[in-house]
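Same chain as my last thread, 383 residues:
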Amino acid sequence: MTPPAPAVEYVPLDAATWRVLARDVDADDDYPNSVRSAMDGFALRAAETPGDFAIAGTVRMGEFPADIGCGQTMAIPTGGSLPAGADAVVPIEDVARSGPTLRVAVRLAAGENAIPRAADMRRGETILRAGTRIAAPQAGVLATLGIVDVPVFCRPLVGVLSGGDELVAVSASPSGGRVRDSNRYAIAASLRAMGARVRHYPRIGDEPGECERALRKALRECAAVAMSGGSSVGERDRLPAAVVALGEPGIIVHGLRIKPGKPALLGAFGDRPILGLPGNPASALLVLEAVLAPIVAALVGAAPIVSTVAARLVQPARGRAGWTGYLPVRLRHEGAEATAEPLPLRSFSASLAARADGYLVMDEPDEEWPAGTPVTVHRFLGG
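reply #2:
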C-alpha cells in the first residue's frame, strides 16, 4: 500500500511557514549578480599595490559604478558592487589618505576582500528541493528569489476516531469505570505537528457493525484515519474485523513486537491508510510517533520530522530481549551535557508522555543499558 502523492496548491509566502514545498526551486539569477565588497574600504586593481591611487569617487549601494582606470580607486561600502577594472578591496584601516590621493602600503591579491559573482547562488542551480519543510531559512531564500506564491503540498485530512463504551466526553465527569475520551486530542495534536489537518469523528461504541460504519464514513471524507482503542484481540475489539470488512487490502500488519503498543494495527482501504492505535494513552502516542509517523509523512509529502538530543543515562534503562522498546525519559541539562532519566513505563498513564521530554529506542537485542550509556533521545513532536 503506497499512499497517493498529495495534491499541490499555491499559498502566499507569508502563509507558507511549516508547509512542504511541492516543486524544486531554482535560482533565477546569480546571487550576488556582481562582484561585491566584503568590507568598507577602497576598490582597486590588486596588481597595482602597493602604491598611490587617485580617488575617483564613491560607490553607492544599489548602483553599478563607473569604471576605474589605471592608478585609480573608489571608496566602497560593504556589499557595494566593485567598479569594472577593480578586482580587490583594501580595508580602510590599511590605507593613508591625503586629499584626493590614497596610499596603500600592503600588497593585495586579486579577489581579496571581494565576494565573487554567484558566490551564493548560480542561475539555474536548484536551491530548495520538493519535500522540504519551509522554515525561516527557506522563507528567506524564497523571498530572495522573488517567489511570492509558493507551491506546496496540500495538507492531508486525517480522521481521528476512538472506540470503547467506557469513553465519555472530556467535558463530562466520568463515573465508575468510565474515562474521558482524551487520546483523540493527543493524537490530533501529534498529527497536526506532522503537517496534517484533523477532523474528529464521534466516539465508536462496542456494538457489532458500529466501527465499520464509522470507518467507511471517515474514509470517504479523509486521506487516512487514526483510531485509538479496539485494535487488540478481545471479544469487543471491533477494529480488526471492521478493517477486513471494508475490503482490500485490509489488514497489512496486526500486532508488533514492540513495547508498549503490541496490539497496533496498520491497514488500508484502497490507498487510504488506517492507523490502529492502542487504547492506553502512553501506548497510543508512542506508537503513532515512533512507528507510524512515516505513513503520515508520506501523506504530507515530506520526510518524517526527527528531533533528537544526545544524552547520557543517569539510571539504567531496561528493555525486553527480542522486542523493540520505546522508553520515555526526562531530560536534564548539566552544563554542556544532557542527561536522560528513564521513567517507569506505564501504558495506562495519561500523564507519562507529558512528564517525559522524549523517548529512547531499545532495539530487539538490547536488554539493559547501564547508567552512563550515551543515548539518543527522540523528542515528542511539537515539544
